[in-house]
Design goal:
Elements lengths: L14 E5 L2 E4 L4 E4 L2 H4 L8 H11 L12 H12 L4 E6 L2 H15 L6 E5 L8 H6 L16 E4 L4 H7 L4 E6 L2 E2 L5 E2 L2 H14 L2 E5 L23 E4 L10 E6 H5 L14 H13 L2 H24 L3 E7 L2 E6 L4 H9 L2 E2 L1 E3 L3 E4 L7 H18 L1
The structure holds pyridoxal-5'-phosphate.
Length: 382
């Protein structure tokens, strides 16, 4: 019996170690990890550049307070600005905290005069109370009320729905360019462009939650690059710490100028070891790797679409880069278990979507293996 709180539905996997694309159980099994620790281990487990960077840092220190200047923090912040837009970076420990910081910053800019945030149905922004208020899925906040006020949900991919909810109290629109937990729902070009335009016209902020789509996941370093736009605030998490707890908020110059010493803080945010691991990861994601992500992702989608032609239980295959969802006409939990029993780790989201967030070094052989096993399940079990 575990002493841990039972809030996770766990795989029957007692981990001995993890290396590259694989997790090894204590009973000697090897699992191909197509979920990458929920999109954290994008370079695989224990990648060499990250291991070296951590080792170098831990020779010097583990934790320092944010009251001192530290090289890894400075370098990672500069690297994130270079790959986003001019402004400043604030580091926190988790995605939810980063969303909180983004919302606080937008509200602080307007000094209480504007405070409403428009986010979208089916979105997911984290488990703290404000992040849950922003999350457009009631199941996550059921029984937790009263929830923080000032969050309004519009229909995803329906510009008019967001537009009609804007009023004199609105300070920001918060959106994922591809909704991850919500079922790998892809933001349409006109929709994301429209949100950018509305925010600029109304003088409010566009906050893009890139916690899942950032760090190369969709084939560009940031997911918003695909749309040829820039947000005012970008929120990063998961892979940005290279396997260590770290998240980042990138605030444009206008927003960052409104925050002064004492306005925000975090004891562990920007821990040197996390920043060292994050820096090595960011540096590893170069143009060549982004090209490989695009190619592997297109291939993964194509091979699943070929399977769809033979299997009517596959309703839709969608994805961008290596963020891929296969929508089924049945609950995907049993399929995830079937794959697990055959040494493949994937995930089920939104009830009937098989979701894959593989490490970036996934091969053609790995792709063929997961599609073949899925095909077997559809033939044998349905
Ligand atoms: C888009 C998005 N935002 C926020 C979060 C919350 O991140 P964390 O679990 O690190 O708080 C997640 C986590 O899955 C996410 O996918």
């Amino acid at each position: 019996m575990s002493a841990l709180l039972g809030v996770y539905k766990r795989f029957a996997l007692d981990v001995a170690r993890a290396e590259g694309k694989y997790i090894y159980s204590k009973d000697g099994r090897e699992y191909l990890d197509l979920f990458s620790g929920i999109s954290v281990n994008v370079l695989g487990h224990r990648p060499q550049p990250v291991m070296e960077s951590i080792r170098e840092t831990t020779e010097k220190y583990l934790h320092l307070s944010n009251l001192f200047k530290e090289d890894n923090q400075e370098k990672l912040a500069a690297a994130l600005i270079e790959r986003n837009f001019p402004g400043k970076v604030f580091f926190v420990n988790s995605g939810a905290e980063a969303v909180e910081c983004a919302v606080k910053s937008a509200r602080k800019y307007f000094n209480g005069d504007k405070y409403e945030v428009i986010s979208f149905k089916n979105s997911f922004h984290g488990r703290t109370l404000a992040a849950l208020s922003a999350t457009g899925q009631e199941k996550f906040s059921k029984g937790l009320g009263p929830m923080p006020e000032g969050f309004i949900h519009a229909d995803f991919n329906f510009l008019a729905s967001a537009e009609e909810k804007i009023n004199f109290k609105t300070c920001a629109i918060l959106v994922e360019v591809i909704q991850g937990e919500g079922g790998v729902n892809i933001g349409e070009k006109e929709f994301i462009h429209g949100l950018r335009k509305i925010c600029s016209e109304k003088g409010i902020f566009l906050i893009i939650d890139e916690i899942q789509t950032g760090m190369g996941r969709t084939g560009t370093f940031m997911g918003y690059e695909y749309y040829g736009i820039e947000p005012d605030i970008a929120v990063m998490g998961k892979a940005v710490g290279g396997g260590f707890p770290l998240s980042a908020v990138i605030l444009n110059e206008e927003v960052s100028a409104s925050l002064k010493p004492g306005d925000h803080g975090s004891t562990f945010g920007g821990n040197p070891v996390s920043c060292a691991a994050g820096l090595a990861t960011v540096n590893a994601i170069d143009e060549k790797m982004l090209e490989e992500i695009k190619n592997s992702g297109e291939n993964l989608v194509k091979i699943f679409k070929d399977l769809q032609k033979r299997e009517s239980s596959i309703k839709e295959v969608r994805g961008r880069g290596l963020m891929v969802g296969v929508e089924l006409d049945f609950e995907a939990g049993e399929l995830v278990k079937f794959l697990f029993d055959r040494g493949i780790i994937a995930n089920c989201t939104a009830g009937n979507v098989l979701r894959m967030l593989p490490p970036y070094n996934i091969t053609q052989q790995d792709i063929e293996r997961v599609v073949m096993e899925t095909g077997k399940y559809l033939k044998e079990k349905l």
